[in-house]
């Protein structure tokens, strides 16, 4: 075996290990997952976990997990403008998540992660009575995502993993005190890329 052949094998092996390390894997069985893959919401840690297709089937319709792990649905639904001002949240880029215990949280992305507020449950119930799609949201795993920054009127029901993805985008792109122009262009692109699905 030549030195060049052995060196090539070492380089290929290191590249393969790096690619494997960068690839996402199922947090239940460690199998590799595709770029588009299901997620579980861990209610105890308030985090999203990556799972493979076969493992996600275990959690369909609340079949496993004893309430701790909830399968994040895929539904995205664009809504006509919703008057979220009644919820008392003073920011234009925010997502609202109803909880299994009846509480509702509002979270707004920031350079430090998501800022969080408790929303008045009665105000949320009044809004849900006016907007049937909001009433149909699955607690803990679906969110009402709103963007009224810079004159936009985006209102969506989305899986919570979309909201976490948007929060990560804001954190990554934020510059200076006001965020800079780059962050708002990235947020607008995020909303342009949303597509309805059931």
UniProtKB/TrEMBL annotation:
Q: Which InterPro entries match?
A: DUF5947 (IPR045991)
Top-level division of the source organism's lineage = Bacteria
The protein in question is named DUF5947 family protein
């Amino acid at each position: 075996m030549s030195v060049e052949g052995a060196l090539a094998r070492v380089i290929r092996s290191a590249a393969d290990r790096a690619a494997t390390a960068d690839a996402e894997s199922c947090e239940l069985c460690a199998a590799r997952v595709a770029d588009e893959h299901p997620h579980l919401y861990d209610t105890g840690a308030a985090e999203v976990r990556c799972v493979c297709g076969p493992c996600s089937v275990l959690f369909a319709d609340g079949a496993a997990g004893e309430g701790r792990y909830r399968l994040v649905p895929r539904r995205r639904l664009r809504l006509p403008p919703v008057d979220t001002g009644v919820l008392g949240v003073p920011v234009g880029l925010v997502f609202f998540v109803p909880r299994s215990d009846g509480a509702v949280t509002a979270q707004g992305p920031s350079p430090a992660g998501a800022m969080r507020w408790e929303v008045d449950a009665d105000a949320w119930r009044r809004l849900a009575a006016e907007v049937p799609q909001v009433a149909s949201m699955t607690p803990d795993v679906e969110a009402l995502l709103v963007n009224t920054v810079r004159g936009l009127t985006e209102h969506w029901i989305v899986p919570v993993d979309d909201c976490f993805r948007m929060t990560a985008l804001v954190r990554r792109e934020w510059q200076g005190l006001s965020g800079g122009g780059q962050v708002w262009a990235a947020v607008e692109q995020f909303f342009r890329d949303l597509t309805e699905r059931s």
